[in-house]
Write a structure and sequence with these properties.
5 helices
Length: 345
């Protein structure tokens, strides 16, 4: 059951391409996922502090059946502008729903909070995310960078830099499933302060270090290690509150199976299990945790009841792997607040 696609990326799902754009000085960026053909979509939000665009239309009872792209962005609420840049790139290609003689690209988006990560956010009147979104859309391809790239450029976790992660899985039914995650949680992706990832049981090969679980488990494995809790702090209590509220893991789960909107919603719900397997704690009031789900239908396979259970189980496992791979692949840069995983002893 556990066999990756040829790239071990979400683009192993036929009909999808991903592009990244980032600003190193800003320590922030955008990731755009483009659909070669409109894809059935759903969404599930379980974090307490989400930032989103065009999510209501994804609910099964609403009329839009398929979308053209998904955007993950840094920049907190400013980053929602990134979807306008992706929308502009699609409009130039005459892609979108036809409404009254106009083409309207449907581009849901979600953002993470990376404003206080050491980057220079003095951008003037308008934030740069619309332009970064356009660049990300233009860069969309089957292969793309992980770690400190795109929406993961300025991401942080508890004690380590976060990043952009992706993974894929081929199922016995012939269906492919893939995940994409910008990992910026308040919690920790490692067991205590070790190098071992919480998602270890789902690792394929050594895709995020091959270390398994520590034995014995460290004393701090049960501690709730939050992003800024252990840092020396000399500012005002209001500043501490603002820092602990700056989090979120935003993600996409995708498959080439044939799904309805309701089934895509269920896929997004199941993918949140991967957050639980990979991050401790997760889905807190300070996180805006969200999963978009996409079904391209390119395999032509409509799932049996048993195969559907396998798909939903695989959604959690694949998402957990993508989250871990994002942190594992992060690279250091000037002005970083936290170290990268590869530097941890």
């Amino acid at each position: 059951m556990f066999r990756t696609g040829p790239r071990n990326l979400i683009t192993d799902v036929a009909g999808l391409r991903v592009g990244n754009a980032a600003d190193a000085r800003l320590k922030s960026g955008v990731t755009a996922l483009l659909c070669d053909e409109p894809a059935v979509a759903g969404v599930q939000v379980l974090g307490g502090a989400p930032g989103t665009r065009e999510t209501d239309l994804l609910e099964p009872q609403n009329s839009i059946e398929a979308i053209h792209a998904v955007v993950l962005s840094g920049g907190s609420a400013f980053g929602l502008d990134a979807a306008s840049g992706v929308q502009a790139a699609l409009r130039e290609r005459n892609i979108g729903v036809e409404v009254g003689g106009f083409r309207v690209p449907i581009v849901p988006a979600a953002i993470l909070f990376d404003l206080r990560n050491g980057g220079d956010k003095d951008w003037g009147r308008y934030p740069p995310y619309r332009d970064l979104g356009y660049e990300a859309a233009q860069a969309a391809a089957a292969d793309f960078a992980l770690g400190t790239a795109g929406a993961g450029t300025g991401a942080l976790t508890s004690g380590l830099k976060g990043g952009l992660g992706s993974a894929s899985l081929l199922l016995e039914s012939g269906v492919t499933i893939g995940a994409l995650a910008a990992v910026n949680p308040t919690g920790s992706v490692t067991v205590g302060r070790t190098r071992h990832f919480w998602a270890a049981p789902f690792e394929i090969g050594d895709e995020f270090g091959g270390l398994g679980y520590p034995s014995p488990m460290p004393e701090d494995a049960r501690r709730i290690l939050l992003k800024f809790r252990d840092r020396k702090f000399t500012g005002k209590d209001s500043d501490r509150q603002a820092e602990t509220g700056g989090n979120t893991t935003i993600a996409v789960i995708a498959t080439d199976a044939v799904l309805t909107k309701a089934a895509a919603k269920r896929l997004a719900i199941s993918a949140h299990d991967g957050f639980v397997r990979a991050i401790w704690p997760t889905h807190t009031p300070a996180d805006g945790d969200l999963v978009f789900a996409l079904a391209t239908g390119r395999s032509g396979i409509a799932l049996s009841a048993d195969d559907a259970i396998d798909l939903y189980a695989a959604a959690g496992a694949t998402m957990a792997r993508a989250i871990s791979r994002g942190v594992h692949a992060a690279t250091s840069a000037d002005g970083d607040l936290f170290p990268v995983w590869s530097s941890r002893q």
